[in-house]
Amino acid sequence: MEIGIYTLADIGTDPLTGETITAKDRIQDIIQAAKLADEAGLDVFGVGEHHRLDYASASPAVILAAIAQATKQIKLTSATSFLSTLDPVRLFEDFATLDVLSNGRAEILAGRGAFIESFPLFGYSTNDYDELFEEHMDLLLQLNDNETVTWSGKFRSPLRNAEIAPRPIQEKLPVWIGVGGSPESAVRAGRFGTGMALAILGGDPRRFKPLADLYRQTGLETGHKTEALKIGVTGHIYAAKTTQEAKDEFYPYYSNYWEYVNLQRGMGTRMSRSDFEQLAGPETALFVGSPQQIVEKILQQYELFGHQRFLAQLDIGGQPFKNVAKGIELLASEIAPIVRRETSE
């Protein structure tokens, strides 16, 4: 199994110090985190997209291009690109350029996104939410397959023998679709034959098993090969020497994270310690604990999904960089080797 990390570049106030990082420093920390992950032998590094003042990453391709110059081996992916409101030609050419810069390490993880600020920003209507994604994904995959493209659709001007440049170093850019819990999204990913990245941020992971089954069933029925139908799982992680230590250290940041995310969505709720303890229980999808406990949770999910990739989000809630660096070290040295060994048969 490939093991990696991703960031949404949220800019949160540290609940313990009251300090808020600048966008400049947040991006520098992300580049440093990617460098540490690469040096530690992790497989993938992802950067998300948001168009808000409380996030530092409106352009994942630009940040990943900077990371490409600071790293050597690690794969570089968006996490996610909001495909409904992105021009597929611009998206493809940006990541093909990243592929050239990184010597063949670029990937695209496309999704519809949990926020809608990009719709008015780029002149789209939320009434076309699903239809835009469907059309843009169709075009993106055609651009990936062909050097010249003739295409027409509803939301974009047509292409006639358009030259799509540069071409990536890889034969094709790996493309994944992010799925948050919708059966329709799982079916879409299977029909297109892309990878499917399941965002499992809490609760019982077993509720996502039908989505994995739907994805594989649809992909095979549509004529895609089994080896092309890859599943990734994403989750929040905090590791420490003991589970109690991990919970004590992470609770202020995790509670803080959901407080400001909920405020962004118009909800003013705050998480209690007892709520957190329940969310971090042994049967849930929140990875908080000792390395051994996190290994056990990843392998429990592997039994459910048989997935090929696990991506951890470990820099949320205004944490200082030292916490993130510690998490990367534990993930790479004490968690990833066991998971890889146990899933290599």
Automatic annotation (TrEMBL):
Q: What domain of life is recorded for the organism? A: Bacteria
Q: Which residues form the Luciferase-like domain?
A: 1-305
Q: Which InterPro entries match?
A: Bact_Lucif_Oxidored, Luciferase-like_dom, Luciferase-like_sf
- What is the name of this protein? LLM class flavin-dependent oxidoreductase
**Entry-linked Pfam families:** Bac_luciferase
Q: What keywords is this UniProt entry annotated with? A: Monooxygenase, Oxidoreductase
Q: Which organism is it from?
A: Siminovitchia sediminis
